[in-house]
Amino acid sequence: MAAEMTRREVATAGAGLALLALAAPGLAATETRRMEEEKPHYGLIGQIKALPGKRDDLIAILTEGSGEMPGNVAYIVGADVADADSIWITELWMTKEAHAASLKLPKVQEAIKYGRPLMAGFGVRVEFVPG
pTM of the entire structure? Predict the structure, then answer.
């Protein structure tokens, strides 16, 4: 990612954080308790562009493969209200290493295998330290 972000990228990242804040009340009780007990140290917001008409299929695949991921505190997938083909994923992890390890899990590898053909590309990607 370039050192400078465009206005749209800054607004988009802010929207992703707002999505996380709005979704927080919907987190499972165990996840909420976990966040209170141990603070996550790594966050990620990313945009995926689906092929036209494939966004809902891609969302289903991404959420199906996200069950048990050690070190994951929150994994929120949402449809962009302004772009019919865009998906936003907001993640909170205990560590950056836990996120990297999750990409090797069989369920995640399966989601990548079936989801990749439905992807047109990637948009904004922002890493952050949760406050």
Answer: 0.71
